[in-house]
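Subject: design request, 70 residues
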């Protein structure tokens, strides 16, 4: 897992308190981008967009190079 803001790897995180971010600073920077309108939802969410917690890979199951999407 990498921080979505600064791209640090999980091993470089200060703590797990701010997951998926590495720190409060990165969490707040991301929140600021939402507030400024830099991020937006591209379309209304549909039922098929829902992800069940059971479907999210556990960190130990993810290879070091990350999940490969097609």
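Subject: RE: design request

Done. Sequence follows.
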């Amino acid at each position: 897992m990498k921080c979505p803001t600064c791209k640090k790897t999980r091993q470089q995180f200060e703590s797990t308190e701010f997951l998926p971010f590495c720190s409060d600073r990165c969490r707040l920077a991301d929140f600021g981008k939402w507030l400024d309108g830099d991020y937006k939802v591209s379309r209304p969410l549909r039922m098929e967009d829902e992800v069940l917690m059971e479907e999210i890979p556990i960190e130990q199951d993810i290879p070091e190079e990350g999940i490969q999407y097609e």
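The CA atoms of residues 18 and 24 lie 6 Å apart.
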